Amino acid sequence: MNQIKGVTLGLFLISSALVGHAEGWRLGIEAGANVSDFSFKQVLTDVDQIPSALAANNRTGFVAGVKLDYRTASGLGADFGLMYSYNDATLHRTTIDELTEDVSERGKNHLMIPVNFKYALDLPMVGSVVKPVVMTGPVASFKLDNRVKEGKTPSKFDFGWSLGAGLDLLENLEVKAAYTWDVNDAVTEISGAEFEKINVRYNQWVLSATVLF
Questions:
Q1: Coil, helix or strand at residue 7
Q2: What is the CATH number of domain 24-212?
Q3: C-beta of residue 162 within 8 angstroms of C-beta of residue 205
Q4: Is the pLDDT assigned to residue 105 strictly greater than 50?
Q5: Quick check: 52 and 94 in contact, CB under 8 A?
Q6: Residue 3 confidence (pLDDT) above 90
Q7: pLDDT band at residue 14, thresholds of 50, 70 and 90?
């Protein structure tokens, strides 16, 4: 009987320590991959003209940075990140003269500030080992590249909204997959053809892991 009481008390103390460690503010280091997913809209000012042929060259890049993570006992939480993002995806425009140019002009290097509001589901028996997590929130992205081609008006700032899901593992590791929709146009005007404007939005997938301290 004393041994059972001792084991029960030990398990209680361990679980209490884990829960206490998981609540409140924590610092995290996050790294992972991003996969571009261009969307675009062509606007013809002359309906008698033939629109350019557009082709997205979506590529895989990477993200890395730090974030502050806040958890509550109820499973609700939030995190605030400061991330560097690299991706050299391009969107090519082929004119009627068979000339090809890169019209994406979004740049390869970005500073991203994601804010996520999330909920972790505490499963019976395994809650201290694994918890499913859902998250959503805004993402601000600032272009770090200064190169701008003639005839293009790229945005220095992108605003998007992210939706994702993942797993909390052992209270110290979070793995997730999230998709971000661009709210504003990454490139608002292409004047390479006088009769055509192309609005480009840069959506992306992010697959990442975060170690929490």
A1: helix
A2: 2.40.160
A3: no
A4: yes
A5: yes
A6: no
A7: very low
